Every structure is written in structure tokens, then in C-alpha cells.
Amino acid sequence: MSEIKRKMASLDGACDPFDYVSKELELVEQNLARAILSREQALTDIAGHLIHGGGKRVRPMVTLLAFLGFGGKRISEIVDIATAIELIHTATLLHDDILDGAETRRGKESAYKRYGLKPTLVAGDFLFIKAFEFAGKFDETVVQWTADACAQLTEGETLQGYFNRNPAVTLDDYLEIVRRKTASLFQTGARVGAYLAGAQPAFIDETARYGLNLGIAFQVIDDILDVIGNIELLGKPTGMDLRDGNPSLPIILALKNGQSGVREAFTSPQPSEDQIAAALDVIKVGPVIQQAKTLSKQYANEALISIKKLPPSHYLNGLKTLVQLIIDRDF
Amino acid sequence: MSEIKRKMASLDGACDPFDYVSKELELVEQNLARAILSREQALTDIAGHLIHGGGKRVRPMVTLLAFLGFGGKRISEIVDIATAIELIHTATLLHDDILDGAETRRGKESAYKRYGLKPTLVAGDFLFIKAFEFAGKFDETVVQWTADACAQLTEGETLQGYFNRNPAVTLDDYLEIVRRKTASLFQTGARVGAYLAGAQPAFIDETARYGLNLGIAFQVIDDILDVIGNIELLGKPTGMDLRDGNPSLPIILALKNGQSGVREAFTSPQPSEDQIAAALDVIKVGPVIQQAKTLSKQYANEALISIKKLPPSHYLNGLKTLVQLIIDRDF
Fold first, then answer.
1. Which residues in chain A have their CB less than 8 angstroms from residue B176's CB?
2. Is A40 in CB contact (< 8 Å) with chain B?
3. Which residue of A166, A212, B50, B86 has the fewest C-beta atoms within 10 A of its own C-beta?
């Protein structure tokens, strides 16, 4: 978190979203630490490896800001749902690292690499279950939204699997994958935050739209950083999408532009490190990164438009700043 | 199910538990079929491979009988929670087949073998999420019990992993694994059934104890069948516990008796088929199967004692017959 704060200092210090919800985020941290306690130390260790591994907590932050922005009062409620959303996110990361065979995550060995497939799979299930414990106490509406978001995550993962190393993937396919796999959880956090604060239905919808667009912008930046990012700030090597055959935005745009070497690296069952490095260089010098940045700004702008009519407050300012923070980030 | 009915004919036809809840079980089937619908056909296919693959539906049946035995009226409620419990069970089977590298399940290729690790992992997550959708609409008590049962499943899996191919495993370790991994879901189904029917707290506890003991008896029989079962009735080869290094009851008892060849097959990282066949033969001719059957009868008896004071009804008779059915089964 301190890393993001460091980044924030270069923005307008007067509307630092972290400061607005720091007390509530601390309660989320306490919840998370309690949630992963198990009589099986191995489960606590594996879950803790990732939970305490430097996550940005962006999803809880969106949830909290949306709630407080509409004058929500029952803090413990929103803290519980923000906890559930971060637990779901962490569960999917554990399972994603299995799916991708990822060796590193957040600057250290992935749980998959460190503890092996089986314990990591079970720990992911454990976190899903703990999320259910936190989210299941809410009314049917919240339960349904949360379950829908989770189902979308698996449907996004499935669609992404279908386009793994598959050059037929289009920009529309990409956006559909991202809506499901990344943006749905941002969207649900924002939606539930507004709903639990008692916002009008039209406002709830606008806030959900904010979350959706913010989530897409977030993923586009992730994809860009996988090409041009700094390995130390990222906490993992660049080029992972090419290595794993995941259809990222720069790859899709480069394929469309017919940039040489990218198709070969993307479609090869096991691209060599030389192939990957060459493809990354090709992507870097072409127009693709700029095109991707433009797209992320469009979605960021959509997010800002969605919350334009929300009641003014410093939480609203926080939501706005968060958009900027997310598209300017370098990790 | 027809398989179990066939078996039932040899028992007292007047208290066939399937007949008592056949309408409700049909509603569970409809729920399950609806639950696995996804816009990603692959998820529906993988989930359906197992959901429609001939499960015995014992857990839903316990849940329904306990509910109806206490005069429960809101059928759609209990059908929903019975659905959730079967979905959780199926999700764990999908993930278990990954953990065990299982090739067959219920007489056909396992989902893991047929669809591969990644799609099967995601489909398991999908089923967990659908279970949450069904269970999350209940009050906090039901949500907490269900979440606790699920957490126990992962904790049982973890403990079992610790004792994989580990000859230090004791009978107490075994019972702890079984309580968590198998019996907790039976226990929770029975408990929730009684609770939702409005039973007195003392009766709820007794019904839960019935489920716990029934679940332990069920697993002991499963372990016995892995040694002496008929491959066609079982739908999978025998000797799987030795092959996978899972500490089953016959293995633990044979280790305790110092029966030759069992320790070698159990502790070997990759026992040969000859080793497994020899160890199975040794287990079969020794006293172990009889000892295990005695233990299953003890737990079956405990289950019957737990429901002795329940209000008489044909559902109560159904719960009693189910105990007999479970310990007499040959698949």
C-alpha cells in the first residue's frame, strides 16, 4: 500500500483516496487476517503468503468509497463485503497461478511455485469459502450480485482459455474477457457499496458503471505494464502474457497490425525467451502501446462520466482520483 | 439412483427412503440442471459430466428426510439447501480428481482426464459459486454452518495431504480426516434440515450427530469397497487409495498389524500395479476388512441411537433405513 501512496504524492495530495478510507481499509486488513486463520497451519500460510503479500486493495477501496460517498453509515457491513471481494480476488489469483503455472507474484515466489499445485488449489477453495462466509450474511440482492460476479470470473477465465495462443482473438473478445474476469468484481464492489448506503437505483447503476469502466481501464494498464513495466515495481517479469499465451491487449493490437514475430511468439506452444524478447521489442516500438493507452483513457473517462452527477463529497473526489491513479500507475 | 433402488429391494420395501423424498429429489435434480447452465458451454459440459454422472444424492436425501421428519413445510427452501450441499460435494469431487490425478469416476473418465486440469479447476470453482448462490439466501446461522462445513472440507483435504503416503498416520488421524472431509457435509445437511423445519435445539443437535456418524460409516464403507469392491459396480478400479497414497482405514489397520507389503505399497512414491495387487490380497485375507466393517457398524449404530427419540414418522424410518442401506451397499 505504501507503494501506491508514494505514487499518489505526485498527484493532488488533497484528494488522496487512501487517506479517506484508511481506517476502513485497516478494518478490512483485520478481517482478512482473521479470515485466513485455520486449524490447518498450511492453509493459513498459503493464504497469508498472498493476502499479506502486498496487494493494492483497489477493489475494497472502490467498494468503501462508493459506500461512504452515498453517506453509508454501517461501516462494519461495508467492511465485511469489501473483505469478501478481496478474498474472492485472492482466491482467483491462487487458482490463476496454477492455471498459468506462474512462478512469481507480487515480487516473490507464487504460492503455486512455493507450496505446489495441490495445497494451492485447496487454499484457493478455502478463500472462496471464507468469502462466502462474509458475503452470505447479506440480503438476497447482494448475495446474487456477488455470486454473479464470481460466476463471471469463471466464465471469463473459460473464455480466456479458449483464446489461449489463439490468433483468432478480436478486440471484442478481449473486452468481453476483461469485463468478466477483471471488471465484474470492481463493478460489483461499486454497486454493492452504493446499494448498501441506500443510494437511489439510478445512482447505483451509475456507480456500477463506474466500477465496470474503471476495471477495464485497470486491466488495460496491467496489459501495458506486462510489455513496458519495470520488473522490480511489477514484482514479476514482463512478457508473461506472451509466455502464457494470454490474449492481452498489446498482443491483440500487434496481431491486428501484422507486426512481425508477435504471432509466432503468441501462438507457439512454448515460445523461447528470445522469441518473447523480440516480440516485446516489436510491440514497444510500434503504435500499439499508444493505442492501448488511448483505450485505457477512454474507459477511464467513461468511469469519470458515470460518477459526474453523484453528490459531491471528498469520497467522490477519491473515486475520481482513483481513476487517475490507476491509469498513471507503473506497477 | 436406480442402482441404489435396485439394492433397496432386498431391504424392507415399506421404508424405502427414496420413495419418501422422490418428488423433492426430483426438484433437486431440476435445480442442479439449472445451476450448471452457463453462457460458457464448456463449464456446463464439465459440471454436467459429473452432476449427471450417476451420483447417489445421499447428502440431499439426508437433508430432505431430516427436514420432513420434523414436519418442515417450505419445500422449496429445503430443496435449495439440498441443492447447495450436492453442488459443494460435486465441486470437491472435481477438485479431488485433480488432486488425486484420478482417471475414472462413477464408471467413466473423470472430468480431469477428459477435459484437463485447467477447465476442471475452473468448473469446480463455478460449482462452489453456484452453491453459494443457493445457500447464501438463508439466514446467518445456515450460512455459517454451511461455510464451516466447506472450510472443514478443505481442512480435511489438507490433513489428508499431510498423511499422504505417510505411515505415521493413526486411527485418530483417520477419523479426524473423515469427520472433516466426508462427515461434515452429511452433518450439516442433517442439521440444516432439522433447523429449517423448526425442530427444538436438542433435536437439531441429535440430528446433526446422526449425520456425522452416518457420514463416518459411509466413508468407512467407501474405503472397504476400495479393497473388496466390484469394479463394475464401483465405477472405478479398486486399490485407488494405495495408488494415490491416501490413508484409508484398511491401509491404516493393515499398517498397524504389520501386514507385509502394505507399508511398501503405501509409502512408495509410485507403487507398481503388482505391489498394489499384492497389498490388496494381503489386506483381503487378513482381519482388516472385518475390523473395518465392525467400525462402520459402530458408527451406524451411533447414528441410529442419535435419532431414537425423534418424532415417529415414515421419514424417520427412512433415516433409519438409509443407515442400513449405506453400510450394506456394494458400490
1. none
2. yes
3. A166
The C-alpha cell of A152 is what? 463471471
Rounded to 5 degrees, what angle do the CA atoms B116, B122, A90 make?
135
| CATH number of this structure's domain A14-322, picked from the four choices 1.10.472.80, 3.40.50.150, 1.10.600.10, 3.40.1710.10 | 1.10.600.10
Contact B126 A154 (CB under 8 A): yes
Of A99, A132, A140, the CB nearest to B132: A132
Are B190 and B63 a contacting pair, CB within 8 Å? yes
CATH H-level, domain B2-328: superfamily: Farnesyl Diphosphate Synthase (1.10.600.10)
Residue B287 DSSP one-character state: S
Nearest by CB: B159 against A40, A135, A162 = A40
**Please, which residues have CB within 8 angstroms of residue A220's CB and are 6 or more apart in sequence?**
A178, A249, A292, A295, A296, A299
Q: Using a CB–CB cutoff of 8 Å, tell me whether A125 touches chain B.
A: yes
How close does chain B come to A2, measured CA to CA in Å?
A: 32
Residue among A122, A150, A153 whose CB faces B154 most closely: A122
Half-sphere exposure (CA, 13 Å, Cβ side) for A267?
Answer: 11
Whole-prediction pTM value? Answer: 0.92
B42 part of contact set with chain A, CB < 8 Å: yes
- Alpha-carbon gap: A317 to the closest alpha carbon of chain B (Å): 34
Write out chain A's pLDDT in tens, 331 residues: 344 444 433 444 556 788 899 999 999 999 999 999 999 999 999 999 999 988 889 999 999 999 999 999 999 999 999 999 999 999 999 999 998 888 887 778 899 999 999 999 999 999 999 999 999 999 999 999 999 999 999 999 999 999 999 999 999 999 999 999 999 999 999 999 999 999 999 999 999 999 999 999 999 999 999 999 888 777 788 999 999 999 999 999 999 999 889 999 999 999 999 999 999 999 999 899 999 999 999 999 999 999 999 999 999 999 999 999 999 887 6
Q: Cβ(A59)–Cβ(A185) under 8 Å? A: yes
Question: Three-class SS string for chain A?
Answer: CHHHHHHHCCCCHHHCHHHHCHHHHHHHHHHHHHHCCCCCHHHHHHHHHHHCCCCCCHHHHHHHHHHHHCCCCCHHHHHHHHHHHHHHHHHHHHHHHHHHCCCEECCEECHHHHHCHHHHHHHHHHHHHHHHHHHCCCCHHHHHHHHHHHHHHHHHHHHHHHCCCCCCCCHHHHHHHHHHHHHHHHHHHHHHHHHHCCCCHHHHHHHHHHHHHHHHHHHHHHHHHHHHCCHHHHCCCCCHHHHHCCCCHHHHHHHHCCCCCHHHHHHCCCCCHHHHHHHHHHHHHCCHHHHHHHHHHHHHHHHHHHCCCCCCCHHHHHHHHHHHHHHHCCC
Q: Judge: B158–A42 Cβ closer than 8 Å, yes or no.
A: yes
ipTM: 0.91
What residue segments make up the domains of chain A, in order of their start?
14-322
Q: State the count of interchain CB pairs (< 8 A) between A and B.
A: 141
